Amino acid sequence: MNAPKVNAPQSRAEFEQRLRRIGDERYHDKHPFHARLHGGQCTPDEVRAWVINRWQYQSRIPMKDAAFLSRVTDPDLRRRWRSRIEDHDGGVTEGGGIRRWLALAGAVGLDPDYVASGVGVMPATRFAVDAYVRFVRDMPLLDAVAASLTEMFAPKIHTERIEGLLKHYDFADDTSLAYFRNRLTEAPKDVAFGLNYVLDHADTLEKQDAAAAALTFKTDVLWAQLDALWHGYVEGNIPPGAWRPDEGLAKGSATP
Q1: By C-alpha distance, which of 66, 23, 58 is closest to 191?
Q2: Domains, the chain, ranges and CATH?
């Protein structure tokens, strides 16, 4: 019986399981802030802080995808990838994920223009999101695609979020939660393409290790944002320059 080759790549099935284990162990659905949010324990200001800071991530998704596309020489890959920008930016009239996120901001009592300005974003959130954009812009295309595979684990958290917010918060309705409902249908097509791309192109152990490290990095980006939120708004250590309660509120705003 032949011994396995040293440094041989994992099989396609083994490597996929390796990627999925990263999500099982490290995805941010396990962060205590999400348990607090989905369980109805967040204060109105904690909800608003989450919406403001998550905006930084949402608003940069099409920018990181544009950076990715600027390096792609394969027209077919560009055609397949550009729908991600369209999902978030949308058309001039109907908008997309970004506009739906600002609708959520208005529903929780924030001025959408204030949220879109980004002035209240925590420094740690900004650094984490900027690091992700730079990663996608500068790293090999395989690594950039692998980093996007946190979307494999997103449907579960979106489902839990919709159920929890509807149950516990007055602001939650079909309009305010439209972003999450749309992602339940948008994300799977992105996952199917991205996962197959990574499994097809990570054809050496070195490339598999790099792809797994890229996915781990992305889980760290998401986790770090929630760590910052918890430290700043649950524990009350709001950093200089970050949003403070009673700033950026819409006129006559209701309590979440």
Answers
A1: 23
A2: 12-234 (1.20.910.10)
